[in-house]
Design brief:
Elements: H1 2-5, H2 27-37, E1 42-46, E2 50-51, H3 56-66, E3 70-73, E4 76-79, E5 85-87, E6 96-97, E7 107-111, H4 112-118, H5 132-142, E8 146-149, E9 155-157, H6 160-163, H7 175-189
Parallel strand pairs: 3-8, 4-9
Antiparallel strand pairs: 1-7, 2-9, 3-7, 4-5, 6-8
Length: 195
């Protein structure tokens, strides 16, 4: 990924896991496999088709040193046909605390220790699509970590839905599962055992 190669802060490891949609959705299991291999203190999640500025990792590390319990999401823009970028709800304003379920993982960071404290991603979410970020965010918040949004490190993504049919879009999106799982988390079952 060109954005990682151009980072001014170069003290990082790069762990990649390639998904195979024809084998079924396993994003959460893949994230857990990567987290088990991670050796660093801070995890930066960058999903596919995303570019970000060369100063991003350095700023994220500085933020982590200042707020070690924070886990942060950053604005994501979609490249439009006219060459402009349209940003999502995370754009604008100031650094702010958010609710755990609002944490987005397409471009985000969190301490590795948080993932270990909550036991990793909930692999039951691999039965469908989406809500896995909310699961991590809620459990991270219940474990005492601070979900936040920092609006000034901007990433942009190619809209891959416009390029080819998404293998899971429009199918089971885990909404019902998430309601059941959130109840379990809030009743004290937020610590899982995947890590």
């Amino acid at each position: 990924m060109a954005s990682l190669e151009k980072q001014t802060f170069q003290k990082f490891e790069w762990i990649q896991e390639i998904g195979c949609p024809w084998h079924g959705h396993d994003l959460n299991a893949a994230m857990n496999r990567m987290l088990c291999r991670a050796k660093g203190e801070l995890v930066v999640i960058v999903q596919d088709y995303i570019t970000f500025p060369s100063f991003a990792l350095g700023e994220m590390w500085t933020e982590h040193e200042a707020e070690p319990l924070a886990f942060t999401t950053y604005p994501m823009g979609k490249l439009q046909k006219d060459g402009t970028i349209k940003y999502d709800w995370r754009y604008g304003g100031e650094y702010r605390r958010i609710a755990g379920f609002e944490w987005e993982t397409d471009f985000a960071m969190a301490p590795l220790e948080m993932f270990k404290a909550i036991g990793g991603y909930d692999e039951l979410y691999d039965a469908g699509w989406s809500w896995d970020n909310a699961s991590v965010g809620i459990r991270g918040e219940l474990a005492g970590y601070v979900p936040a949004c920092r609006p000034d490190i901007l990433a942009a993504a190619v809209d891959h839905d416009a390029l080819f049919a998404h293998p899971f879009r429009g199918k089971n999106e885990n909404g019902d599962l998430h309601q059941r799982r959130e109840k379990v988390y809030r009743e004290g079952g937020w610590k899982l055992h995947y890590l």
